[in-house]
Amino acid sequence: MAPSAPLAPEDILAFAADLADAARPLALAYFRTPLDIVSKADESPVTVADRAIEAHLRGLIEARFPDHGIFGEEMGVKPGSGPVWVIDPIDGTKSFVTGLPLFGTLIAYLDGETPLVGVIDMPALGERWTGLPGEARFGHAPARTSACQRLSDARFFTTSPEGFSGADEARYRRLIARTALRRFGGDCYAYGLLASGHCDLIAEAGLQPYDMMALVPVIRAAGGVITDWAGADLTLTSDGRVLAAATPELHREALAALRD
Fold it and tell me: Does the entry feature the keyword Hydrolase, yes or no (predicted)?
């Protein structure tokens, strides 16, 4: 199989946006309808919508880039000799199955270990964030994180306090005790809000690569910092702990709070 011709990040993003466009009507066709819901090994719900969207996106990627690898939430890893696409067809499945519109489709393109292009698409809201080196956008407008530099001023988000346990819960509680405002829920939507300057800090644990990879190019290109709790770059083998901040100064202070 001949390798795909190299593409510029702008061309990769254009294809990723086409994938998100293809996923939207599928998600909306199933949203707020009776669904066949089962539980996965990690007790999170999976629906026919997740599987249908991922199967469709995989087919589009394989047709365009047959040598590329694919890592999806529902269908696992397809090895490839080129770059890797990481897909979460419905991030926030619990929101999806309860009729809450704060679910998204996440699409990432990785060059080696580095997430180069990311898309956070919110089908029910008609909103989308994109990121590639040097450029983050919300729709057609530039996206930029806030200028918050101190925990005492920070607006904090996490999907659920139930996502932390044991030592992680103690570290998380130390962190949020120092923030100005706490909000919960949103899954990937919170990262879009951070990229647009509406919140300042996010901490989570227990995420999978398909939950994280698309977020990295968006947050970084918008001026923010996103790492694991040790300050290391997020990769396909990261431990699932994520810390995203609007500025390097805020990120450093949050890391120190988590390490105390």
Answer: yes
Cβ proximity of 199 and 155 under 8 Å: yes
Q: Which residues of 229-240 are buried (b: 16+ CB within 10 A; e: fewer)?
A: beeeebbbebeb
pLDDT tens-digit map of 203-213: 999 999 999 99
For the chain, what is the domain count?
2
Residue numbers of the domain that contains 184: 151-259
Residue 2 lies in a domain: no
Residues 86 and 47 reside in one and the same domain: yes
Same domain (yes/no): 20, 133: yes
* Among candidate residues 217, 218, 208, the one with its CA nearest the CA of residue 73: 208
Which residue(s) pair with 78 in the sheet?
Answer: 70
Helix axis angle for 9-30 and 48-64, nearest 10°, is 150
Q: Which of 19-23, 96-100, 192-196, 240-244 has the lowest mean pLDDT?
A: 96-100
Q: What is the pLDDT of residue 44?
A: 65
Residue 224 CA to residue 249 CA, distance in Å, equals 10
Q: Within a domain: residue 1?
A: no
| Cα–Cα–Cα angle for 217, 194, 117, rounded to 5 degrees | 15
Closest CA to 119 of 230, 242, 14, 223: 14
Which of residues 142, 176, 202 is at a domain's end? 142
Identify the CATH number of the domain in which residue 114 sits. Answer: 3.30.540.10
Q: What angle do CA 131, 231, 251 make, to 5 degrees?
A: 70
Please indicate, yes or no, whether the overall pTM of this predicted structure exceeds 0.90. yes
Q: Would residue 62 count as lying in a domain?
A: yes
Residues 116 and 155 in one domain: no
